[in-house]
Design goal:
The protein has 130 residues and is mainly α. It is built from five helices and no strands. The protein has one domain. Helix 1 packs antiparallel against helix 2.
């Protein structure tokens, strides 16, 4: 449940990062692609910070625990992204735009960060229980 609660904390942060900063600040000044790149890079950074928070409060954990937490985060975002987008009738072509790495989009890297951040933080930093 701790993993889910940390994910819930990230929801408004992700909303602020995308809907306010990327869409209203970066995009008008820098264009769609650059706004996406800035927002996704920022997101990757705070995913690692949230992984640190998660592990600091988790106490004892194994590498398998951290992989499970990362997989849970990644699957939650995929469900949220696809489910929410389809619910509001967002076209699939618009949803998959962020998946186009060859065109400079970074969404697959964000998903990889969700999957691997808890493991990497757990192996490298080993935050102590708070």
């Amino acid at each position: 449940m701790l993993t889910f609660r940390v994910w819930l904390i990230e929801l408004p942060v992700a909303g602020l990062n995308w809907f306010v900063l990327a869409e209203r600040v970066y995009r008008p000044r820098l264009g769609e692609l650059r706004a996406h790149q800035i927002a996704m890079t920022t997101r990757i950074v705070y995913i690692f910070a949230l992984a640190y928070v998660l592990l600091a409060f988790a106490g004892g954990f194994t590498p398998l625990d951290t992989l499970e937490a990362g997989a849970f985060w990644m699957l939650l975002w995929l469900a949220f992204e696809w489910g929410g987008s389809l619910l509001v009738r967002r076209p699939v072509s618009e949803i998959v735009r962020g998946w186009r790495v060859r065109r400079g989009y970074l969404w697959p890297y964000v998903l990889a960060a969700y999957l691997l951040a808890p493991l990497l933080v757990g192996l490298v930093v080993r935050p102590s229980a708070g």
